[in-house]
């Protein structure tokens, strides 16, 4: 059960996303996470144990999917089961041409008609002097019956369970789509600054990203210190979780940031951060980043 179900009645469809994440962990790991604790003590803000370390044959990206689906706070989880299903398909579902279906061949003997008995041929309601003529029998054999269709057999018990899980995700995605139709989604001008900032960091154009910061932030963080903070980052991707409006000229944006990092020990890690930025509109009606807070949620080692 999702943590909020033990503490409040204000729940939404993300509790089903949480349940899907736990079910996925059980299917792939073969065990229940934190099963040694009773349900009310299993509410833990820390992420679940890494599944790829327990089963090395699984890709490391499965940890990212499970951690996001079972996030402690509802707004940090997948907001749509369709996105969860897309990530699972990209990892586990192979193209159709990689599977072979074997069919058996069936042979049928022609079915012959039995001769009509003479008693039935001579039986008639007409007078006895009038004999009834029987229709000539066909010597052609009856057409063979079509072969029975056999059920397709999938290669692998795990794939069957994953397809069942994807079907359940599709049903929840339909309910999420109905709930999202009535929601009002408006794009704020501050989002364009966020896009420019992270796109510049992804392209290692730190000068352009530095120009998105306000003069107050630049005064406390020189350019050299700013660039030095990204020396271990190879690539990063972001997703906007929430936008809070403090005033007409100031907003706070919360982002889930996934980064690939190479630390000083030479190993490569996949890390998940919660990035919170405060943006304001200056006197020239231009939005800029005023303050940044970043908290590490999880980090797992991946293959280089």
From TrEMBL:
CC terms in the record's Gene Ontology section: centrosome; spindle pole
A GO term, aspect molecular function: ATP binding
Domain of life: Bacteria
Residues in Protein kinase domain copies: 1-92
Pfam families, per database record: PK_Tyr_Ser-Thr
Region span, Disordered: 115-150
Enzyme class (EC, first level): transferase
E.C. number(s) listed in UniProt: 2.7.11.1
Main location: cytoplasm
UniProt keyword Membrane, yes or no: yes
Sequence intervals crossing the membrane: 158-181
Compartment(s): Cytoplasm, Cytoskeleton, Microtubule organizing center, Centrosome; Cytoplasm, Cytoskeleton, Spindle pole
Keyword list, A-Z: ATP-binding, Cytoplasm, Cytoskeleton, Kinase, Membrane, Nucleotide-binding, Transferase, Transmembrane, Transmembrane helix
Protein name as catalogued: non-specific serine/threonine protein kinase
The organism of origin for this protein: Thermosporothrix sp. COM3
């Amino acid at each position: 059960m999702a943590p909020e179900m033990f503490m409040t009645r204000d729940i939404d469809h993300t509790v089903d996303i949480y349940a899907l994440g736990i079910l996925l962990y059980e299917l792939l790991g073969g065990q229940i996470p934190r099963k040694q604790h009773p349900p009310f003590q299993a509410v833990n803000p820390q992420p679940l144990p890494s599944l790829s370390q327990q089963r090395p044959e699984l890709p490391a990206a499965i940890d990212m999917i499970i951690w996001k689906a079972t996030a402690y706070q509802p707004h940090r989880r997948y907001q749509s089961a369709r996105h969860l299903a897309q990530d699972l398909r990209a990892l586990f579902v192979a193209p159709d041409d990689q599977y072979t279906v074997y069919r058996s061949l069936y042979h049928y003997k022609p079915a012959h008609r039995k001769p009509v008995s003479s008693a039935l041929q001579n039986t008639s309601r007409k007078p006895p002097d009038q004999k009834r003529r029987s229709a000539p029998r066909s010597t052609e054999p009856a057409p063979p019956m079509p072969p029975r269709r056999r059920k397709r057999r999938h290669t692998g018990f795990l794939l069957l369970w994953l397809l069942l899980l994807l079907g359940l995700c599709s049903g929840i995605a339909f309910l999420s789509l109905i709930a999202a139709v009535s929601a009002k989604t408006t794009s704020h001008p501050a989002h364009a600054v966020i896009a420019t900032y992270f796109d510049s960091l992804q392209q290692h154009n730190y000068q352009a990203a530095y120009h998105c910061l306000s003069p107050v932030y630049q005064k406390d963080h020189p350019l050299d210190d700013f660039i030095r903070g990204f020396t271990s980052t190879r690539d990063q991707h972001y997703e906007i979780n929430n936008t809070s409006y403090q005033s007409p000229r100031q907003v706070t944006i919360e982002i889930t940031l996934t980064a690939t990092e190479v630390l000083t020990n030479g190993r490569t890690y996949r890390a998940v951060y919660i990035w919170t930025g405060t943006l304001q509109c200056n006197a020239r009606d231009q939005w800029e980043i005023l303050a940044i807070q970043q908290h590490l949620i999880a980090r797992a080692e991946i293959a280089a």
